[in-house]
Amino acid sequence: MTDQNKVAYITGGTKGIGYGVAKVLLEAGYNVAISGRDKTTAEKAALDLNNDADRVLGLGSDVTNLKDEEAAVASILAKWGRLDVVLANAGLGHFAPVDQLEPEKWHQMIDTNLNGVFHTLKASVDALKDSKGYYITLASLAGTNFFPTASGYNATKFGVVGFTQAAMLDLRQYDIKVSTIMPGSVASHFNDHTPSDDDAWKIQPEDIGELVLDLLNMHPRTLPSKIEVRPTRPDKK
């Protein structure tokens, strides 16, 4: 099967890393669905990626809601009849010393960053069994390196790494590949940041896209299950 027949689904795909990965996969011939919490925004982002509506799909889905993710996958299957690649990319971060971290922000991170990756997998796993597909989570170097003000964010990303590695062991019997990508500094919109020329030293979203494509092109016998990636040179201030 050529890449032109394959289908990828990217959560949190309206901007940043998700958008960059979607762009690379479209250029490689994949049909791509992206989702975001606002359906109108997702539909616009999809058409900005490629104005051929046969190749892109924008979906409204809140990953904290399993039914939303189930509906998103159902829409993908209704359009293309298959699902080969899922990138659980949706995430957010709130940073404050643990004694000052607001409980609602803690729960928001747990619900989005951790429960979300489970919901996305739960909704898509049957389709991935059918296609012998690939499930990828977007974790962070914060999933192995803890730092001040990040108790909630560290907790979720450590959790994503552990979840993904265990899921890999569970699902490889179905010939489903499972990997987690752990980036360092990325020039994205994370935490309300607006990328600029000052971010040129950082990993760019399309770099993560190329990494995802490399994983998809890896020989079926080989699985890089946990990938750390960081800027070659840190910013010198």
Provide a quick synopsis of the model.
It is built from 6 helices and 7 strands; from the N terminus they run βαβαβαβαβαβαβ.
Your description of this structure?
The protein has a single domain, classed as Rossmann fold (3-Layer(aba) Sandwich). With 237 residues, the chain is an alpha/beta fold. The termini are far apart. Strands 3-2-1-4-5-6-7 form a 7-stranded parallel β-sheet, with helices on both faces. The chain has 6 helices and 7 strands.
Query: What is the count of DSSP helices, taking H or I runs of 4+ residues?
Result: 6
Uncertain spans: none
Determine the CATH topology: Rossmann fold
Main sheet strand line-up: 3-2-1-4-5-6-7
Whole-angstrom Rg? 17 Å
- The CATH top-level class label: Alpha Beta
First-last Cα distance: 48 Å
Order of helices and strands: EHEHEHEHEHEHE
User: What proportion strand?
Assistant: 15-25%
Q: Find the count of extended strands (DSSP E, 2+ residues).
A: 7
Q: How would you name the CATH homologous superfamily?
A: NAD(P)-binding Rossmann-like Domain
Query: What's the overall average pLDDT, rounded?
Result: 93
Q: How many strands, what sense, and barrel or not for the largest sheet?
A: 7 strands, parallel
In CATH, the architecture is: 3-Layer(aba) Sandwich
Secondary structure class reads alpha/beta
- The outline comes out as globular
Oligomeric composition of the shown chains: single chain
Q: In total, how many domains does the architecture comprise? A: 1
